[in-house]
Amino acid sequence: MPPAIDSLADEIVDHRFKGLPPDAAGLTVRELAAERRDLYTGGFITPVLTLSAEAVAHNLCAMDRFAGRHGLLLAPHGKTTMAPALFRRQLEHGAWGITVAVPHQARVARAFGVRRILLANQLVDHAALAWVAREQDADPGFRLLAFVDSARGVRLMDEGLRAAGAGRRVEVLLELGAEGGRGGVRDAARAGEVADAVAASAGLRLAGVAGYEGEIPGADAEAVRAWLERLCALAVALDREGRFAQIPEIVLSAGGSAWFDAVADAFSRLPPLSRPVAKVLRSGAYLSHDDGRYREVTPFNRRPHEGSLLPAFRLWAQVVSRPEPGLTLLNAGKRDIAYDLGLPEVQAVRTAAGRVRRADGLSVTRLADQHAFLAGPAGPEPGEAESPGMPEVGDWVALGMSHPCTIFEKWPLIPLVAGDGTVTDYVRTFF
Amino acid sequence: MPPAIDSLADEIVDHRFKGLPPDAAGLTVRELAAERRDLYTGGFITPVLTLSAEAVAHNLCAMDRFAGRHGLLLAPHGKTTMAPALFRRQLEHGAWGITVAVPHQARVARAFGVRRILLANQLVDHAALAWVAREQDADPGFRLLAFVDSARGVRLMDEGLRAAGAGRRVEVLLELGAEGGRGGVRDAARAGEVADAVAASAGLRLAGVAGYEGEIPGADAEAVRAWLERLCALAVALDREGRFAQIPEIVLSAGGSAWFDAVADAFSRLPPLSRPVAKVLRSGAYLSHDDGRYREVTPFNRRPHEGSLLPAFRLWAQVVSRPEPGLTLLNAGKRDIAYDLGLPEVQAVRTAAGRVRRADGLSVTRLADQHAFLAGPAGPEPGEAESPGMPEVGDWVALGMSHPCTIFEKWPLIPLVAGDGTVTDYVRTFF
């Protein structure tokens, strides 16, 4: 990747970045990182989200090994992190490309030099198509692959590229869906129509098939397996029809973060096609993992011998009020904490004196825009001022959260923290 | 406000800003605004959030008039917008100051020259207190007022200021809460303890009383009225005790966006105190208003003769897939759309040819990270391909949303659009 990414280290640390030390204002990110400040005593203000340096490194390796073992390529979903420095580390760990959901995300990846972008949606926005055409024509090494799932979509995409005077064709993957699911054709007949439309277009080229098993209705192991077989069968059928005769390699892609074991199994059973097949997994949440949904659904729960993921996020908030027995208020809320797939869990309490203890029995009961409501295992006994173990005003409280996509998005510059509390670097996000 | 705010117009329009035209990359915000592009044909990419220039102007005037009529000052809650350009317009419309929830937000307001900041929480973060001390000591014209609700909080705050070598005292407002509510003392005995602690401190000075009626349990007109009477009674009691003998003016503050009529009534009945009283309303949501919660709860529903607010946000997303009858997918999801206080409403459909129609009967049934699921009034008749009125792939769909605080936060640069579709300016936010 080009030097653009290094320029992030030249950004000035200022009011734009919550959680960062006010007394660092005016330093560059590089200069602040070089100071190797301590997270707890280095002037960071609460709330502050942190990423564990060790957990991120562990997770990068775990997915690289999993993919390698199963002959899969990785195009991690970049929408999760939207962090070019993490894209770079994923590419350095062997990723084939970066997946995105919308053209804006493709622009961010492209601004930092990503050369293979998988846009996992139909792209019919004329202004965005003009941008794609410009980028592709300016750099022969840049390759954008988009999903298609309707003849109308193909026609609009082709019109947009023609209006933009695109020189190179844009590669497309025929998206398979499922009844009651999200995007993607529902059957072979529609798939044929879409493939015909692509063949008839001036600006597109069919490069493979793709889909997302995570959005099929009632996704369980059996439903996912059956759907993945359909996906493979579609690739086989299109190949037999000679739909890939013009290309050197067929792309076959599936895989979120909940079923990549099933994807590996299904893809391993794909019969030989007329061309080599790039089997591309698009998992994104693995990089930070989480303390909620993805902890529950990671395939490594089923296959512990294949690896593991570590939760990398920890949000530190401060107790700002304990206004009545049984109620403790933290200075972090919906603005800071992911809440769409469950409330955060309380992991630890740190006193101003630096004593850290586990937070057994504490829970977050609700969030306001800027506050979390914390409760103990039970209300205080009658006559007691407070239940035992509740943190005091001024204490820091560590929260683990659910859903990486809605954690990253709330923090534009995230300290990367080593196990001893040293902040070794900062991760910039663009949402 | 100082020139810092004008520097926002010097920012380069680039990959950081979703929705903005890719072909504007390299222009400054000022240059792009001068082009007065058309929202629909000017190269903006979907999804794109817009703010109505007319609605914002209307709402600024409506609240200014309401406050003026009732002898209230406005310190609009800046956490809602986090937009310095909107802070400036609020101050130009007579606002007394800007309210914030956490030190980071105070930093943003301060970076753009706000000189009176109301921090509506207890502030016990030592690094943040050191920042406050530096700012106050560097600028005699800067005034930060924070809430306090416990003797421990007062002591920690005082310690932090002392550790920072603060020269000037920080003004504090004694926060009143309610049993089962959020922050704030629950009774007069605790209020007295906190006031005593402030009096005994070296670094604080009691400047008044404050609270938030929106978080009292079961807030209805009667409960809010009763609580506001308690707030006024607390101000009277502290004044009679001579707690405000050292200050020229007493601050009395309440008011979110749902009960400012009740606040106006209660504050109008405050008996004369020993000092002039600055009666400060902290409403924030009025500026953009919304198409959900705040449309329901605005006090102007009860008092239409006193004014009105107009919903200013409109999100344009594009149909990217219509994979089966009855299901239409938009390219905007949790990343773009507020969802914590209800799903968005579908307001209009715009075809590529520029025909706009109302979206009667269409609704958003669920959101994924990057998709909205759109349904018609009923599924298609058996044998029909689609129910009538559903938008086609490529159409733009306008969504109205609920909860300004979680709309603004998702968009770093928001086009301000005139009624004729001309983009006249851009609003930068810092979350």
From TrEMBL, chains A, B:
The protein's Enzyme Commission number: 5.1.1.1
Every D-serine dehydratase-like domain range: 312-418
Assigned keywords, A-Z: Isomerase, Lyase
Family matches, as Pfam families: Ala_racemase_N, D-ser_dehydrat
Coiled-coil regions listed: none
Name of the top EC class for this enzyme: isomerase
MF annotations from Gene Ontology: alanine racemase activity
Domain of life: Bacteria
InterPro entries: Ala_racemase_N, D-amino_acid_metab_enzyme, D-ser_dehydrat-like_dom, D-ser_dehydrat-like_sf, PLP-binding_barrel
Family affiliation: Belongs to the DSD1 family.
Record-given protein name: Alanine racemase
